Amino acid sequence: MKARPLAAINSRLAGFAARLPRDKTDTLLLLTAALLVLAPHALHLPLWVSTLCAVTLMWRVVITVRGQRLPPSLVLLPLAAASMAGVWLTYHTVLGRDAGVAMLVLLVAFKMLEMRARRDLFVVVFLCFFLLLTTFFYAQGIGTALMMGASVAVLLAAQLSFQFTGALPPLGRRLWLGARTVLFALPLAALLFFVFPRMQGPLWGMPGDAMSGRTGMSNSMAPGSMASLAQSDETAFRVRFIDPPPSHALLYWRGLVLGDFDGRVWTQVAHQRGSAGGAGALMRGRAIRHQVTLEPSGQRWLFALDLPAAPPQVAGHASSVSAEQEMSAAYPIDTRVRYDAVSHPGYSLQADAELAGAARWLALPFGANPRALAAGDALRGHADPFDRVRAVLRGFREDTFVYTMEPPLLGRHTVDEFLFKTKAGFCEHYASAFVFLMRAAGVPARVVTGYQGGEVNPVDGFLTVRQSDAHAWAEVWVAGRGWLRVDPTAAVAPERVRRPLARAPSRMNRFGIGALDDLMNFDADSIPLLTQLRYEWSALNNGWNQWVLNYTPERQRGVLDSFAAGLVNVKTLAALALLLVLLVAAHKRRNRPRLDPIDALYSALCLQLGRLGLARAADEGPNDYRARIDSARLEPRQKDAAARFLRLYSAYKYGAQPSDPGLAATLKTLLTKFR
Questions:
Q1: Has 427 been annotated as catalytic?
Q2: pTM flag (> 0.85)
Q3: First CA to last CA across the chain, in angstroms?
Q4: pLDDT (tens digit, 9 = 90+) per residue, 316-328?
Q5: In terms of Cα–Cα distance, which of 304, 312, 322 is closest to 259?
Q6: 53 catalytic, yes or no?
Q7: Can 382 be counted among the known catalytic residues?
Q8: CA-CA distances (angstroms) from residue 69 to 34, 65, 74, 78, 169?
Q9: Distance (Å, rounded) from C-alpha 550 to C-alpha 338?
């Protein structure tokens, strides 16, 4: 019952489109193509820009359908000037990625109201082609690529619609012609992708764009910072293990070491980065080789399984490791990078009898958190440092502490309020309070931030670490044992380290929907089929990232070198194969029946007429074909040339008189006139 009203609506729309003149249908098709190009930008542009573009396109649709006149320049110029002023007020510049894209989007929308000549149509088409490229400034996943490919096909169909001079083919045939053009271009595009010299870094961009819209680990930690980061489902990095991976409880991805505390915020110890890395580190047990594909973050930090044996070799970046075993690149990571790392879950770090510079790991801010300071000082009654650690962890475990991703706000004395009032927090609250108590108890301690865990995709075997896996833990120093990892969160919520966190919701924009490439990135763990689809989509996206988006100049040189080396080995086989193909082609050409040149010209004319919607039926002779063409909508010169051609061809095939020796030349001239 519901299908009938829908079918009636479709029938009315089809009838309405059929009654419109050709110029109006062509314009509506161009507006549809422009809408496909502009729509993805609504996810990141200011709301007023998207609204203004939607109103402008709807205004153009009304003008087209009703046959009204386009607005004069006296109306468009003030509107365009006000829009440019709005861009300036929004971004405080007209340069850069976001401001430039906003201006280009508005330019395309306003140009729709100024299409008075044929040249304006092509200006709009070419502007849309350029605007397609800007979509990849914000998303480069496979979903974006497929949508942009479809937009190119519709744009080509709209462009071709203005080229037909005779009868207009159906819309489906024009769309297929545009899609076929894209498919024909794919082999050449793939060849250029693999062999054309690649540039290091993005082709377009302004220095200020590098840091915009990036989510990742910060070089400081305050109450609530990790909990806020854990709300993001954005991928931080992916890992492919070459050796068997450790258990989930040992998946600690080391990032930054924080040692300075002002009573609220933990920051890195000053002047410690860049020190000789690896000092006092003794690796024990088996090595675990793994390959990390790090997403762009705008930060310099590199991540690897705790503890990395050496800084990784990152293409285009000089990397180093500090005395605190922090890995970093020389420049911010603004593009996706891939590097190999070797780590040892078993290690000893600065396992000396005395700790050099221990004062920096015992320092506490004056006058901050007096109750916690007194509680830590009371722990000195335990002579063994391990007993002090166990006492604090036992308090976390046995008291009414709660692990939550929505911790309450804390005031000036953050540690006191957390330990003795709210007793609810995320990993950074427990790590901060634990390190504070340890320092107050005379045990050197520090905070380590990074990621813990990850989700293994059973389809491709990659482990995905998301921003929701961000974690903070502690390290304490014991004489003769060195720095030891202690995770206070495990005392309150052991499931946090034994298995992954519940997947955070995808990032939403103001319209309540995720990015183009996150449409399959939803929480469907309760439905096995949808979970499998999510894994398949994630593996497909990862393959796209690994082999397309991460096709760096270094990888290109490797591919070309491998191809050149293999070419030497297969040169003889290729020559033999080519010779065999030429022999087979020559044999087929020699035995192919010769086609009558007159019939060949007739087939060429039928092909031209078929492209104009006048395809010849299989049982239709030249005389009947000519009669049907006489009543068709063709230009007079085309109709006259086709009629004379078919009359001469009919006489040649069925007439009693011998054919004219110059018939082929005459038919060829008529075919040229028809074209």
A1: yes
A2: no
A3: 50
A4: 778 888 888 889 8
A5: 322
A6: no
A7: no
A8: 21, 11, 14, 19, 28
A9: 8
